[in-house]
Structure formats: structure tokens, C-alpha cells
Write the C-alpha cells for this entry.
Amino acid sequence: MSNETLSERAIIQSRVEKSLRRRHARETRFRLFGLGAVMAGLAFVALLFISILVRGLPAFWQSAITVDVFFDPAVIQVDPQPVFQTGESPQAFREREIAWQSQLTMVNWNRIMENSIIALKPELEKQRRDVRALFTSSERFRLRDMVIEDTSLIGKTVKLDLLADANVDVWVRGNIDRSLPDSQQQLRAPVRDLADALKAEGVLNIKFATPLFTNPDSRSSPAAAGLAGAFMGSLFMMMIVIFLAVPVGVASAVYLEEFAPRNRFTDLIEVNINNLAAVPSIVFGLLGAAIFINWFRLPLSAPLVGGLVLSLMTLPTVIIATRAALKAVPPSIRQAALALGASKVQMVFHQVLPLAIPGVLTGAIIGVAQALGETAPLLLIGMNAFVANIPATPFEQSTALPVQIYLWQGNELRNFFEARTSAAIIVLLSMMISLNALAILLRKKFERRW
């Protein structure tokens, strides 16, 4: 072999090696870029969760004053609790009971709470106004309700954890600059000194914020504001979405994918479904306000209306996800079922749909989880109204977790509600993560089965 041939071969080999090195270098860079993108995404998600947790976790604890409360008969001067009498109509008994409860409402419950502190510090007798400022205003109604449930408490002493006022909680936890002048402080100087003294003596402590999960929202008593009403509203709406949007969406997808004839009409339906999936959620809120409230006259701010609106918004997502799951089933399954004599209905419901169930469940639950976090359509149907009760049915007025987050974020008591806003976000994210975890578990279960 001549030297010229060897030289040409070496040149070609060198070019091939350089080309391979460049290709491998590009592949390595692509892998690194992909890995970097994934790591950046995870880092941003981790940063989001960490920031929410750091801000929200402190809100799961709040200030409470542990005192011995004496239900003084000299203060609680009311008639004996009504007893149902023979021959009395239920209406008459109810009227006497309401009148008795009205007497209890007129009792000076603030004095009962003041006396519990003055019993510890008698020198505060002339500072009742400052003592009263320690407690959140809703605690007097809590004492009243305790007596309504058990009148034997009158004349007894009970050790209770009474919620401190929101401004007191902000002060003792250091969420406000203590060096600010009195004109910029939310509490008067004597109240601040008294709160510090009670905290130093162990009377005022930081305890788990049970009211955050058991109470509805409150404007007159911010320290007692909770998520129970919003949580139940979201729960009712999700139940409506699950029992309405999921079956209708799955049935529509099965028909369109397996039974509908291929013509212009079905093509138009498919195009509109894909377009609806991209429509902004606020448009569905306008549609719900126009149809369900103005036309059908359904109750304003009710979870029923919210659930119907979110069902309309979720339907395209469920239909598209279900159709994708049905398309993923191999055509050989359909051909084999039909070859063995099965009808088309039997083929779809006995063979194809069971194999598509994991994808159907995943798409449905992800659609429901997406609906859980929607806020804009709920604002347009009035679910941003202040509701002080926990709804017992989907027909009662309520709010929802996303809307509650929106309302708390704009509250003027920023240094108290900022943490509570993050705590509400944690509760909402927990519900969404739970739904996604349920989708994964169901998918794995049915994948193993089939």
C-alpha cells in the first residue's frame, strides 16, 4: 500500500474522529443542558415550597392565655334553662329557649374574662380596659356557648385556653418592630407591658392553632379566623366536579373515540372541545353567573354553583385525557375481541376501557386538582363574599380555599394574616398533592391488575 493511500486514510480517519468527538460533545452538552433544566425546575419548586413553609408553619401556632375562668353567678344572672313542659307546643318551647339564650347573650362575658386575669394580678382592677384588650372578641361568645351547652358550669371554675387578640399575638411573637413609637404601635403601652409580663410568667403561651381548622372566617375577631368554612366549600365543589364532570367527560370521550361517525359534525365537536380547554377560566365564571345565577336562579355564593362552573371548566380536560388513554390501547386488542365474536359495546367496555382506566383516572384527578385551585370563576359567582358559617350542604353560602387565600392576602392586618395566608396555601397544596398521590396509587393499582 502506497504512502499516499495511507495518508488519505489517516486524513479520513482523523476527520471521522473529529466528527465523532464533536457529536459526542454535542450529546454531552445536550444532556447537561437537559439535566440543568430539570435541576433548575426542581430548585424553583423547592424554593417555592420552602418559602411557603417558612412563612406558613408559624401560623399553625398562636398565642393563648391559660387561666382559671370562674363562671360567676353574680355576673351570669339569667333565668333557669327552659324545660319542655307537657302539653307545650314545640314552637312555644323554642320561643322560651330563644328568650333564655338572649339573656345569656346580654351577660357581660368580658367581665368574666377580665376577672380571670385580675384573680392573678389584683393590682389590675383599675385597668380592666387593658386586660380586656388581651383577649380576642370572639372568646366571650365561646364562654356563652359553653354555658348554653352545660348550665352546670355556672358557679364553677374551669381551666381554659383563651385566644389572645391578633395584635397581642403579633407583639409577643415579634412580628412587629418593638422600637416603633407608640403612635405606630397597634397596642397601647400598658397592654404591651401586660402581655410581656404574662408571657414571662407562663400565662400567655404559644399553642397549636386549633381554631385555624375548626372556625370559619371572622372579621370582628381576626385571631379566631379559620379555614373550616372555606375547606367545606371546596370539598362540596370537588364532590360535585367528581360526580358530574368525570362521568360525563368519560362517557363523551368514549362515544367520540369509539362510536361517533367520522364526519364534519364530529370534527367540529372535537375542535370546540380542544378550544374550550384553552379558554381562560374567568370566561367560565361569566358563563356560570349568566346561566346558573341569572337564568336558573340558583343561590349566590353556593358551592353548588361553584361546582357546576368548575365542572364545565374541567370537562374538556377529562375528555381529552380520556381520549388519549383510549388511543393508547393497542388496536390488536380491539381486533382480537371482535374476532372472538364480541360486539362493539362489549369490546369497548370489557376490553378497551379497562385497559385505559389508569390514564382515565390520572387525567380525571389531575383535572379535579386543577379545578381545586381556581379562583377567578369563583369570584364572579360571589364566592368572595364574607361568610361566617360553615356550610352544611352545597346549597348554603360559602367560600373556597383559593378565594380565602385571596381575601386574607388583602387583609389590612398584614403582619398577622401574611403567615395565615401561607398556612392556607399549605392546606390547599396538601389537598392537591393528596389528589395527585391518589391518581398515582390508582394508576399503579390498575396497571398491576391489567
Q: What stands out?
A: The first helix runs from residue 3 to 56. The chain has two domains: 59-209, 228-446. The chain has a mean pLDDT of 88. The longest strand covers residues 61-70.
